[in-house]
Specification:
205 residues; ten-stranded mixed beta sheet; globular
Length: 205
C-alpha cells in the first residue's frame, strides 16, 4: 500500500510518500520564499529517506538531522545552507547516500565520517569546505562507490594510499581544490574508473 499526501509547514509545501514504514519527504518552497528546515521534522524518527534537495532552504544544517536511526538517503543538495556539518552526522550509521552539494557550507569534515561504513555515495561538491580529507574516509568505507569533493577548498595531501586500496570506489572527483602530493608520486589505481584531480597542487612522477 502506497499513500501520497501533502502538508504545509510554515509556508513550506511538503510532499510525502509513505511506503509501509518508510516515509520519503520531498520539500519544495514556494517561489520567493527562503526558509530553514522546520524543527517539526525531527519527530519523524522512522524516516529512511529525507529529500530536501533543490529548494531555497537557508541557515545551518540542524544537529537533529542525525536523529534518524533508519535513514538511508539524505539529500540536502542545491540549497543555501551555511556553517559547518554537525559532528553528530556520523550517528546516521545506516546512511547510504549523502548529497549536500551546491550549498555554502564551510569548515572541515568531521573525522567521524570515516566510520559511516554503509555509505555508497558522498557528494560534497561546490561548497567551501576546507581542511584535509579525513583519514580513513576512503579506506574504511568498503561500500563507497562515488566521492565528489570538487570545487571546494580542501588542502593537505591527496590520500593516494587509500585510493590504491579502495575496494568499490569507481568515481573520485577532487577537481579544483588545494590538494598536494608527495614529490614524483605515480598515480596507479586499478579499480577507480573516473579520477579527476585537475586544478590542484599535485606533482607527478
Amino acid at each position: 500500500m502506497v499513500t501520497f499526501f501533502t502538508l504545509l509547514f510554515n509556508r513550506i509545501i511538503v510532499k510525502c510518500i509513505q511506503v509501509w514504514h518508510c516515509v520519503v519527504w520531498s520539500v519544495h518552497t514556494r517561489k520567493g520564499d527562503s526558509k530553514s528546515i522546520p524543527n517539526s521534522f525531527q519527530t519523524w524518527t522512522k524516516l529512511r529517506a529525507f529529500d530536501l534537495g533543490r529548494n531555497a532552504l537557508t541557515g545551518l544544517v540542524p544537529k537533529w538531522i542525525s536523529n534518524f536511526p533508519q535513514m538511508q538517503k539524505l539529500f540536502l543538495n542545491n540549497n543555501r545552507f551555511e556553517g559547518t556539518l554537525p559532528l553528530s552526522i556520523s550517528k546516521l550509521e545506516k546512511l547510504k547516500y549523502f548529497l549536500i552539494s551546491h550549498n555554502q557550507l564551510q569548515g572541515s569534515l568531521p573525522p567521524s565520517m570515516a566510520s559511516m561504513i554503509n555509505l555508497e555515495e558522498i557528494s560534497l561538491h561546490q561548497n567551501r569546505f576546507t581542511g584535509s580529507i579525513p583519514k580513513g574516509l576512503i579506506l574504511n568505507l568498503d561500500k563507497l562507490q562515488r566521492l565528489a569533493l570538487n570545487d571546494n577548498r580542501f588542502s593537505g595531501y591527496l590520500p593516494v594510499g587509500e585510493l590504491q586500496q579502495a575496494k568499490e570506489l569507481g568515481i573520485f572527483d577532487a577537481f579544483n581544490n588545494r590538494l598536494k602530493s608527495e614529490d614524483h608520486i605515480a598515480f596507479v589505481f586499478k579499480d577507480v574508473s573516473l579520477f579527476y584531480v585537475a586544478n590542484n597542487l599535485l606533482q607527478g612522477g
